[in-house]
Structures are given as structure tokens and as C-alpha cells.
Amino acid sequence: MNDMLEKLYAAKAAVRESDEAREPLAVLRERALSRMRERRNFREALAGARGPAIIAEIKRASPSVGIIVPKLDPSEIAREYEAAGADAISVLTESDHFLGDLAYVDIARAASTLPILRKDFLSSRYEVAQSAAYGADAVLAIVAGLSDERLAEMVDEARRYALGVLVEVHTEDELRRAVAAGARILGINNRNLHTFETDLAVTEELLPLVPSGTIVISESGVKSQDDVRRLVAQGARGVLVGESLMRSDDKHEAIRALKGATVTA
């Protein structure tokens, strides 16, 4: 199995099987519904952001670069991100290749008032309910790893708990499928998840095809104010930034710089 995306979903399937044996879907649904009063509106946070919307990611490692930070304190980072002016927080929970943990979601939530996106390779109703039960306000749905049926099931399950869904695409065909599924928040991933190659031009090429009224977030490869300016100029509402923020010694200054990106006439 050479395809990285296949490896990631295979690893996630094994984790899900273990999780389901420990906590059945019915148990998670009950807990997820009981937490609906805690829900923070992910879409409104992005739409109402001052300047470019910044989703700041808590991320310890990745298959492409290895370990980013040897020790991770999700609580401290969440507090830093909010104080620095981020609009939402993405928490990477995949454990095998990104060294994440589902527990990080509630830890970040307790340390911040921002909406929390669970970022992982999810593909089932079970994982959506699990996300809501463990404190997420939104989930990631990666079109490249999902059939149309699975995508529709995830969107439907998210509605039960008023969860936002960031529907991620990388190609024109995936964009078409996301729109057909009713995506209202679209993540355009500049990284090809099969090869892990990254190119900001992916967002620029797909943006003209996005229906009006859809919030677009550009993901991966965003490192500087110039990158944000470039993407916002083409119509992106904001960006999701992980590695460069995690490596930054001054997250306040890093987010201030991203937020300060403006489009000149």
C-alpha cells in the first residue's frame, strides 16, 4: 500500500473498530446530544472574522515532515492561539501518523472560547457522533477519501448535533461532489494527500468554480502574510495554518502577521 491516503484511512479504520467495541454508537449519540448546548458556531466564526479568517492548528507531527514539536501542551497552545487573534482552532487527532489524540479536543476546548474543529481521517456516522461527544464543534470530511454515500452520511450525522462540516477538496471533480453534498464550508487543500506534494495554485484554480455564499478556507502550505494575501485576493475567506504556527516561537506575532494580510487595489 504505497498511497498515503489509503494508509491513513486504513489506520483510522483499525482505531474505529477498537473504539466501537469500547463505546457503542448509541452511547456516543446520547452524550453528543447532551452537549449540544455547548456548541460554538464554526461557520459564523469564520464568516464574522475580522480580516482573513485564521484556523490555527494544534499539530504535533505529520508524515511529510515528521515530529514538529517534541512535547505538546494542547491547553497552552489553544490559549496562545485565542490570545493571538485566531478565529477557530483545528485539533489534529489522528494518532498513528500525526501523533494526535482525541482527548486533545476537549483539552483545547476547556482552554479556549473558540470553535474547535476535529481534523482527522473520518469516514462514518460513528466518528461524527464521537467528535460531538468529545467536544468538537466541527468535523473534517475529506472528499478524496469518501464515497458520495459516506460523505452524505457524515453531513447528515453532523446535522443531528449542529456540528459544522469543513468539506475538503483538492480537484475539480471533488469540488463538484462537495457542492452536490451541500457543502457550506469548503476547504481547498493545496496538498495532494496521495503524494503529499503542495501547491498554493490549487486554491487559485478552484476558487472561480465555487458557488457564491460558500465559505472557502485554503489549507496546507500557507506560511506567510504574502501567501494569505495571494489567496484572499482570489476569494478565499481565510486559511488553515498548522506547521508554521506550531514551529513559531512567537505565535502572537505569527498570527498577527497572517491577520494583517490585506489585498491592495
From TrEMBL:
Protein name (database record): Indole-3-glycerol phosphate synthase
Keyword Transmembrane among UniProt keywords: no
Keyword Oxidoreductase appears in the UniProt entry: no
GO term, biological process aspect, one: L-tryptophan biosynthetic process
Keyword entries, A-Z: Amino-acid biosynthesis, Aromatic amino acid biosynthesis, Decarboxylase, Lyase, Tryptophan biosynthesis
Family: Belongs to the TrpC family.
GO molecular function, one term: indole-3-glycerol-phosphate synthase activity
Organism listed in the record: Vulcanimicrobium alpinum
Pathway terms, separated by semicolons: Amino-acid biosynthesis; L-tryptophan biosynthesis; L-tryptophan from chorismate: step 4/5
